[in-house]
Automatic annotation (TrEMBL), chain A:
<keyword id="KW-1133">Transmembrane helix</keyword>
<keyword id="KW-0472">Membrane</keyword>
<feature type="transmembrane region" description="Helical">
    <location>
        <begin position="7"/>
        <end position="25"/>
    </location>
</feature>
<dbReference type="InterPro" id="IPR052549">
    <property type="entry name" value="SpmB"/>
</dbReference>
<protein>
    <submittedName>
        <fullName>Spore maturation protein</fullName>
    </submittedName>
</protein>
<feature type="domain" description="Nucleoside transporter/FeoB GTPase Gate">
    <location>
        <begin position="46"/>
        <end position="147"/>
    </location>
</feature>
<dbReference type="InterPro" id="IPR011642">
    <property type="entry name" value="Gate_dom"/>
</dbReference>
<dbReference type="Pfam" id="PF07670">
    <property type="entry name" value="Gate"/>
</dbReference>
<feature type="transmembrane region" description="Helical">
    <location>
        <begin position="155"/>
        <end position="175"/>
    </location>
</feature>
Automatic annotation (TrEMBL), chain B:
<feature type="transmembrane region" description="Helical">
    <location>
        <begin position="38"/>
        <end position="58"/>
    </location>
</feature>
<keyword id="KW-0472">Membrane</keyword>
<dbReference type="InterPro" id="IPR011642">
    <property type="entry name" value="Gate_dom"/>
</dbReference>
<feature type="domain" description="Nucleoside transporter/FeoB GTPase Gate">
    <location>
        <begin position="42"/>
        <end position="152"/>
    </location>
</feature>
<keyword id="KW-1133">Transmembrane helix</keyword>
<feature type="transmembrane region" description="Helical">
    <location>
        <begin position="6"/>
        <end position="26"/>
    </location>
</feature>
<feature type="transmembrane region" description="Helical">
    <location>
        <begin position="165"/>
        <end position="188"/>
    </location>
</feature>
<feature type="transmembrane region" description="Helical">
    <location>
        <begin position="133"/>
        <end position="153"/>
    </location>
</feature>
<keyword id="KW-0812">Transmembrane</keyword>
Amino acid sequence: MQWLTTVSTWMIPLLILLVLIVGTIKQVPTYETFVEGGKEGIKMAISLLPFLLGMMVAIAIFRASGAMESIVALFSPLLQLVGVPSEIVPLAMVRPISGTAALGMTTEIIGTHGPDSFLGRLASTMQGSTDTTLYIITVYFGAVGIKRMGDALKVGLIADFIGIIASIIVVSIVFGS
Amino acid sequence: MVNLIWVFMAAGGIIFAMFNGTMTDVNEALFQTADDAVMLSISLMSVMIFWLGLMKIAEKAGLLDMLSRLFRPLIKRLFPDIPAEHPAMGYILSNISANLFGLGNAATPMGIKAMEEMKKLQPGSDEASRSMITFLAINTSSVTLIPTTVIAIRMKYESVAPTEIVATTIVATLISTLGAVLVDRFFYTLRERRAK
């Protein structure tokens, strides 16, 4: 598995090298084009700020008040019934809402139970196989001014749920509980 | 929908805090997070300037076209309402490829560009199109081959085999992405039926 780590480290620099070499061969004014594209990046980040701030503050209020914890506590007996360890419930609930919070929880679980424990492996797999739906919707739709999002949230959340269930089943089969 | 969720979390949290006696925590979290959001936007800016600059070169050099030609058959089936030659295809593909290699940071600007291009297909409308919803579904189910961040955390906590979760992650990702595509198709059919 060492090659995987090597691939991840080499990936980005090699990609940059490829783009720059092909750009030069195709006689693209590379530096000027880079600056031109970069300016769009500034505009994008600034226009994202109100969306991000609004959503993050609401989530923070919800978490800090203890409301999120209570909801988690409400659901955990049900999950324990089907053999899902309750320590994983907060992560599963937070994952679609906040990426940084989920990463924090994954780190905490790995730190407390050890990276090679069942919970550690489960948290790792869950973190890698799902994404922060609310953040992606906020950022992607916010940046281009989509206000009516149709079925996007429903579809995104169901996809997250499938990912969470899949992680539990796959990790149980591969590593055993 | 997003209005309701937003108010539910913020107002719900404040009301809960009244009874839970956590108003001080709420106050603290409120202003701390507002600060964090500004910091996050600024740190996103560096990544966005760099990758959008680089992607502009890739676009002008014809690399995005090459990529979309390679995967066109598959992507065409997933996004039937985007014309095959449209630049949105190239950005969708670069976003998915960036996610595959766990380059979450590089994926975001490309995903936004993809959205922009998809929006050009329906000028003036502020409603999410069919392809936008499909794109989001694929994105939120996170097609990851190499979960770089998780591997880094596992290494930090001295795992015997930090990368042993790569295989389980790939399988779980495949299942959730497949599920996302099916759920997306299902809701699309529902919408179509309702429209008739």
